[in-house]
Each structure stands twice: as structure tokens, then as C-alpha cells.
Design brief:
Layout lengths: L9 E6 L7 H11 L3 E6 L9 H8 L3 E2 L5 H4 L7 H8 L2 E7 L1 H8 L6 H8 L4 E5 L3 H5 L1 H12 L3 E2 L3 E4 L5 E5 L3 H12 L10 E6 L4 E2 L5 E2 L6 H12 L3 E6 L11 E4 L3 H11 L5 E4 L6 E3 L18 E3 L3 H4 L6 E7 L4 H11 L4 E5 L11 E2 L1 E5 L4 E3 L3 E2 H13 L3
Parallel strand pairs: 1-2, 1-4, 2-3, 4-5, 5-6, 9-12, 9-14, 12-13, 14-17, 17-18
Antiparallel strand pairs: 7-8, 10-11, 15-16, 18-20, 19-22, 20-21
Helix pairs in contact: 1-2, 1-9, 4-6, 5-8, 10-14
Bound molecules: flavin mononucleotide.
Length: about 400
């Protein structure tokens, strides 16, 4: 078991007057579930959409709505709560953020409890806007968001889709999971440091058909590759994910190319690679495939199945790249380090990630234990970490060669 990155973290949540304010309940629940401590501040407009009582109950803390809370007015606590809160926090998240509050923050207003608190903040500020499409795309809002981003604040851009008004377009609050991921990313000390980079990631297993209902697969869940794609996106990269069959979900902003077999994956990689600065080949590509898939289901009455296999294309060996850096993965059970180093050289990789399969690492689980080996033979031996954290470590090493 490893410690959750959010456990013990002190998070301030600001909620503003949006229809999406109800989603703040889901965000609070997730923070609490993962062991974070949460204190909440609402704008007066937010109370039109959600009650302080709901959020106080979920967060197990008093919720502040007024700059001069009742406990100060009756003289029980005359502290400068906004300064205390600001100094207490490891991070502040405003989600959902109205265009009104975004404008106020970008101009340094301190006219309600939330905006006052933001001006006193020393820790990172994360803003997740939500608004109807025309409000969101309003040039003044765009300018305000650009300004906040340039000042170093982290913006979790909204998604496109159906909106509460019935209109469709950009402005829907980012998915709760993506908001939590972004908060974890920032609390782990990362930022949007891969802006301008195009990153291609392959993930998951490949399925090699035996007949229309059966296939040869492997135990890869896709979790490692999906984590790399997500982290690359959250760190600002333009990401394309080529995925074999997997039940993992991915952010809508990531271009997803679904493939099934090793040959399909090879074609997709070859088509995309020259558009990318980096290829992270984390897919578990099947080494073998049936020589010929039967066109009809092979009946069990035939008594036994004689399965003849051919070698699949070795994607890493067959790609020719000029400017794209390539990271490969190795899963070895014997002579791990020397086999991985051999693969790094033979396949002309820039980095190789050696997976050490075990109970808590490798296939299907959320954690992994890897060693990152560089071209000069030096290696970074990582402890057991979540796949999200492993992805961050891999991308930090990748950044140094991009
Ligand atoms: C039903 C309804 C839904 C609203 N949803 C949003 C929204 O999603 N985003 C937004 O920026 N403003 C929205 N507004 C407008 C804000 O509530 C309004 O600008 C308010 O002044 C924001 O105050 P605050 O930023 O202090 O919370 C909505 C208003 C109404 C009546």
C-alpha cells in the first residue's frame, strides 16, 4: 500500500454562482475520501444554487459565505479568518468559477469572502471555469483567463457539450475526475511544463483474432499508458492516445485512436509518429498472432484446435524517426536490467522503462514499480508509486531529452 498523494493535504474550495455548483459536492466527497482536509468558501450567489449546510456536512467544516461571518459578529471569534485560511492551505481550487469571479480575481478585487481570500493566498490557485458557451467565449473572459494563466495560476479548461441552457458548446465544468487529477498534479509539484509538445502514447493490450469470437490477448489493462496520456495533457501537452482494447476512460481533449491488433497499432503509430515530439510506447503488443483468423467460429466438435502462430511486427524496431524521441517499455522476469539495457540499444530508444511485475505492480493494478534507464546507462530506480505518479516521473525524464 502506498500513501495517497491527497492524504493530509489542506485544500480550500471556492464555489461560485453556477448551475454546476452542485458538482462541488462530488469534488468535496472525493477529496475527503482520499484523506484531504477541506475548507469551503462560497460567494453569496453560490448559495442560490447550493446550501452551505450541504457543503459543511460533506467537508466536516464550517462554510464561510460572508467576509464578516456570524462568529465574528457575535464576538466569539474575531480572527482575520481570510489570512488564517490562506496560510493554512496547500492549494485553493475555485470550482466552478463564474466569469464574474474570474474577472474579479484577474483584477485583484476583494469584495466578498472568496475573492478576499484569493488575494491573501500563498499557495497555488487552480481555477475551473463553467459558463454558458457565449459567456465563456466572451473575449473579456478569454483575456482574463489568459492573464491568470500567465500569472502562473492553473486553469482547468471546461469541456464541450450540452449545457444547462439547452445550448451546446464550450463551457461545461471539467469532469470531476480531471479536476481531482489536476489538483493531485499540482500538489505533487508539477505544472503545465509540456506546453507546445506533441506527445503520442500507445496503451493497452492488442487482441489477435483466432476466429470471430476468440482472440489471443494479454493482461495489460491500459492503466499505465492512460495515466501517461492524462498526465501529459495536464502538464500542457497536445496528446494523442493509440489504445488497444481497454475499459479505461480518457479526457475528451485527448485524441483517442482505438485499435485492436498489433498490425492496426503499427499502422496507427506510423501514421502519427512524425507529427509528435515524443512517442511513449507503453502498449503491451502481442508478440504472436494466429497465421490466419478463421472466418467462421471454430466448432468445438472438431475436438481440438491446432493453433499456428506467426510473429507480429515489432513496432519499435520497424519505426523510423527523425525528430521524434522514443520511450519503450520492457517487462522482464529474468536478468531484468541487462535485458532492458539491451532492448534500449537494439531498438535505438531514448529511454526505456523497466516494469517489475509483482502483486502491487505491473498488470491491472493502480500502482507500479519501475526503473527508468537512460541512453548513457544511468538509471532511476523508483519505489512503488501510483501509476499517475510513475507517469509524472517518466514525463519529467522525457522532458530533459525533448
Ligand atoms: C440559473 C443561472 C445559472 C447561471 N450559471 C452561470 C454559470 O454557469 N457561469 C457563470 O459564469 N455565471 C452563471 N450565472 C450568472 C452568475 O450567477 C452571476 O454572474 C453572478 O453574479 C455570479 O456571482 P459570483 O461570481 O459572485 O458567484 C448564472 C445565473 C443564473 C440565474
Amino acid at each position: 500500500m502506498i500513501k495517497d498523494q491527497l492524504a493530509g493535504k489542506k485544500i480550500l474550495l471556492g464555489v461560485t454562482g453556477c448551475i454546476a455548483a452542485y458538482k462541488s459536492c462530488l469534488i468535496v466527497r472525493e477529496f475527503i475520501k482520499r484523506g484531504a482536509e477541506v475548507k469551503i468558501v462560497l460567494t453569496p450567489s453560490a448559495t442560490e444554487f447550493i446550501t452551505p449546510l450541504t457543503l459543511a456536512t460533506l467537508s466536516h467544516n464550517e462554510v464561510i459565505v460572508s467576509t464578516f461571518p456570524p462568529s465574528q459578529k457575535d464576538g466569539t471569534n474575531l480572527s482575520t479568518w481570510h489570512i488564517d485560511y490562506a496560510l493554512w492551505a496547500d492549494l485553493m481550487l475555485v470550482a466552478p468559477a463564474t466569469i464574474n469571479t474570474i474577472a474579479k480575481i484577474s483584477y485583484g478585487f476583494a469584495d466578498n469572502a472568496l475573492t478576499t481570500l484569493v488575494t491573501a493566498l500563498r499557495s497555488p490557485l487552480v481555477i475551473a471555469p463553467a459558463a454558458d458557451v457565449d459567456m465563456y467565449n466572451n473575449p473579456i473572459n478569454m483575456e482574463n483567463l489568459n492573464k491568470l494563466e500567465k500569472l502562473g495560476h492553473y486553469i482547468i479548461y471546461p469541456e464541450s457539450g450540452e449545457l444547462a441552457s439547452g445550448l451546446s458548446g464550450e463551457g461545461r465544468l471539467a469532469d470531476t475526475n480531471k479536476i481531482i487529477d489536476a489538483v493531485e498534479l499540482i500538489l505533487s509539484g508539477y505544472s503545465k511544463d509540456l506546453v507546445g509538445k506533441k506527445i503520442l502514447v500507445s496503451a493497452g493490450p492488442t487482441y489477435e483474432d483466432i476466429d470471430p469470437v476468440r482472440f489471443i490477448g494479454n493482461r495489460s489493462s491500459g492503466k499505465m499508458g492512460y495515466a501517461i496520456a492524462k498526465v501529459a495533457y495536464l502538464r500542457g501537452a497536445d496528446v494523442t492516445l493509440i489504445s488497444g482494447p481497454s475499459s479505461q476512460s480518457i479526457y475528451p481533449e485527448i485524441k483517442l485512436i482505438k485499435v485492436r491488433s498489433a498490425s492496426e497499432m503499427e499502422r496507427a503509430v506510423k501514421k502519427e509518429i512524425d507529427k509528435s515530439h515524443l512517442l511513449v510506447m507503453s502498449a503491451a503488443v502481442s508478440d504472436f498472432r494466429p497465421i490466419k483468423a478463421a472466418s467462421n467460429k471454430i466448432k468445438k466438435e472438431t475436438g481440438k484446435m491446432d493453433l499456428k502462430l506467426d510473429l507480429n511486427p515489432d513496432i519499435l524496431s520497424s519505426i523510423k524517426t527523425k525528430n521524434t524521441k522514443v520511450i519503450g517499455f520492457a517487462l522482464e522476469t529474468q536478468n531484468e536490467l541487462s535485458n532492458a539495457k539491451k532492448k534500449l540499444k537494439e531498438k535505438h530508444l531514448d529511454l526505456i522503462v523497466l516494469n517489475s511485475p509483482g502483486k502491487e505492480s505491473g498488470f491491472e493494478v493502480d500502482t507500479n514499480k519501475v526503473t527508468i534507464i537512460k541512453q548513457d546507462g544511468k538509471s532511476v530506480n523508483l519505489p512503488l508509486l501510483s501509476k499517475f505518479q510513475v507517469a509524472n516521473k517518466i514525463l519529467t525524464e522525457a522532458k530533459s531529452i525533448l
